[in-house]
Design brief:
Serine dehydrogenasease, three-stranded mixed β-sheet, ClpP/crotonase-like_dom_sf, Pept_S49_ser-pept_pro, alpha/beta
Length: about 300
């Protein structure tokens, strides 16, 4: 085959796969009675602009949106903007996580009215990631090490080597920035849980006590605090499965694996989308898909 024939054959096969993806996306929309968008990739610009363009192009529009999300995390500010875009266009927003949504992805998932996972899905601690020397680093690790060294200094136990490390590696302005990123993650998570995830929590289980706004706020603060406890999870990249989120954080998580209408279509769609992204060499970048379009970069 000539180079032109190979290009034509590849284009045609891509078109067939994208048609299959669209058919599977339509099945998910019917099962969930919601518009459906899939995003695989980090929470970095220009993902927010791309998501905005795709959401604005949806027509006609249902009242509800279901987002299939897979992300290793990124910038909380991007998650904040994406959540605002979703809420501008939809009355109800739900997230489905077939694999993982970490860090800023976890914060974004908490903006949903409902969270769908199965036994193999995980969320992550909400330790914000900060660019440093060309890499992303977990901010809480720096803050906790700084606080540990300061405590040792106050107790008179700081070694000469630790003092040198403290002076060389910790900049006050940088530490303040880390603190603000941490507070932003917690504040967004708390507000979103209270306003969306907990809005229909009206009575407590068992005793049936009426739930107040203050009780919702306290529960949201508890969730935010636990997701920020690095000592609890030990690693920024540690996945937190559905049963732990339910048991330890008392979060209501919908098990789509137990939903016959969703389980098959979601797994079939997700596997095909992942395979296609790898075929297009987009698996290390950004993938955004609706039944109308595939965007990879």
């Amino acid at each position: 085959m000539s180079a032109t024939e190979v290009a034509v054959a590849e284009r045609d096969s891509n078109r067939i796969i994208e048609l299959q993806l669209s058919e599977r996306a339509e099945l998910i929309e019917k099962a969930s009675n919601a518009d459906f968008i899939a995003y695989l990739g980090p929470m970095f610009p220009p993902a927010d602009d791309q998501i905005k363009d795709v959401v604005e192009a949806v027509s006609p529009r249902r009242p509800s949106l279901l987002i299939l999300l897979e992300t290793g995390g990124g910038f909380v500010s991007v998650s904040e903007r994406v959540a605002r875009i979703f809420r501008h266009h939809y009355e109800r927003v739900e997230f489905i996580v077939p694999s993982h949504a970490m860090s800023a992805g976890t914060v974004l998932v908490m903006s949903g009215d409902a969270i769908h996972m199965d036994y193999a899905s995980v969320l992550g601690p909400i330790d914000p990631q900060i660019p440093k020397n060309g890499n992303l680093v977990p901010a809480l690790g720096y803050l906790e090490q700084f606080e540990r060294l300061i405590k040792k200094s106050e107790e008179g136990n700081l070694t000469t080597a630790e003092l040198a490390y403290l002076l060389q590696n910790f900049d006050p302005a940088e530490l303040y920035r880390y603190e603000q990123e941490r507070e932003l993650s917690i504040a967004l998570l708390e507000d979103w849980l209270v306003n969306f995830k907990f809005k229909n929590w009206t009575t407590t289980e068992g005793a049936g006590v009426e739930v107040t706004e203050e009780m919702r706020r306290e529960r949201a603060q508890e969730v935010g605090r636990k997701l920020n406890e690095t000592g609890r999870w030990h690693s920024h990249n540690r996945g937190i499965p559905m049963e732990v989120l339910r048991r330890d954080l008392k979060l209501l998580i919908e098990d789509f694996g137990a939903n016959d209408a969703l389980r098959g279509p979601v797994h079939d769609y997700y596997r095909l989308l992942k395979d296609y992204a790898m075929r297009r060499t987009h698996d290390e970048g950004f993938v955004l898909h609706t039944k109308e379009s595939y965007v990879g970069f």
